[in-house]
Sequence to fold (499 residues):
Amino acid sequence: MKPFSRIRRKAGNSNRRRLGIVLPVALAFSVFVSGIALADNVQNNVTVGGNDTFVAGGSTSISYRIVATSGDGQTGCNASDGSPAVVTINTPAGVTASPNPLTFNACSTFQPTTFSSSTPGNYSITVSVSDPGPGTYNTSPAAFTLKVLAPPDTTPPVISSNVSGTLGDNGWYTSDVNVSWSVSDPESAISSTSGCGPATISADTAGQSFTCTATSLGGTNTQSVTIKRDATAPTISGSASPAPNGSGWNNTDVSVSFTCADNLSGVASCGPNQRLGGEGAGQSASGTAVDHAGNSASDTVSGINIDKTAPSVSVTGVASGATYTLGSVPAAGCDTSDSLSGVETAASLSQSGGPVGSVTATCSGALDSAGNAGPSASVTYSVNYSWSGFLRPVDNLPTINVVKAGTAVPVKFSLSGNHGLDIFAAGWPKSVAVPCDATAPADAVDEIATPGSSGLSYEASSDQYTYVWKTTKTWSGCRQLQVKLADGQTYMATFRFTK
Fold:
């Protein structure tokens, strides 16, 4: 028996040894599973059908907290171990949460956040936790479905009238009119309608009304439309005054007037009345009547003959705006004509202005055999002296004349004849300082006049005018001598002065 006993004891020891090896492994597995199940829980205060639901465009408040379990290997609240827990709310597109994320330094205390959305639908909301400490978190209790409801129907149906026909003026139709209705409500079904069927208006009317009424969950709406129909044209008749003579002619203006009427929408415009003042045979005038609906009718008064035209007068020989040289101006004259009764008295010529500068030739005094006076005709033109440029010792532009300051310069020129000494425009000649052009050619003035005051003279033998220009000793640099004649033309020469 002893050997058996020893064997049992050995066997017992062996079993104890096996248990000594196996039990720690089982215990470790138990602790691992417990660590998951007993991790600190992230919870919310969602009430189904309560704060998990709101209408699109609005918002709801949901609070979150952390509940300690002390079963994840860390005793007490994981968030209060010196490393705060940061809870991030995971929101899908179309949903916002504020504030987000939430920071927890303790457990059991709720922190609120506001969810908002403008898009109806069911949205899955979850959270995630960030904590550098040793503890773990179970986020499943914080998951929920956010329900965003479509707004209720608070608006009645939309009703619009559809009117087809020829629309004239001022809301009047000028043809048959068809009326139909469009009724819609995108938020709820149409429950009833009244008066919304099609209709046709085929007779003239000052106003026929149609009303459509429709109801939905959003309420009742009513729309009306009034149709005015006038498809009948107005009437019009015209007359002329004064009446023609026995031969059918008038020698004065003729007035044509129109009379209009309309039985429904009324006359909007009539005519226009006209006054015929032009000469001619077989003239006519037309008028139009328009009612307020836009219908129209016309009438014409014809066979109107008028002869009252005065003779035509024109100036011959010279042209308006033309420029001529003194001594070569064409002879002006008058031309008078009349295509009906003929010329009784021809127009006569008169002239003003000149002999140089602006000249006006006028023809007036014409009469035809009917006693009509012809209008005056005028032509304005310009006459200039015959200028051939400055003569020696002065050079023309671009040459610069070089002269000693203070000397008297004989400025010579010809106007093709003696036209007196009153040839300068008032206040001229003049001189002004100008910059010297270093690139221009230069030529010395080789003739000096007798000192004295400036003056103008004419020498018949050479057919030359001489203007003695007295310069000033203080002048230096360049100056431009400007000579403006009585015909309005200005001529210039440039001088450089030396000491």
Q: What stands out?
A: The chain is about 5% helix and 45% strand. Residues 1-37 have pLDDT under 50 and may be disordered. The CA atoms of residues 311 and 339 lie 8 Å apart. The helical segments are 2-37.
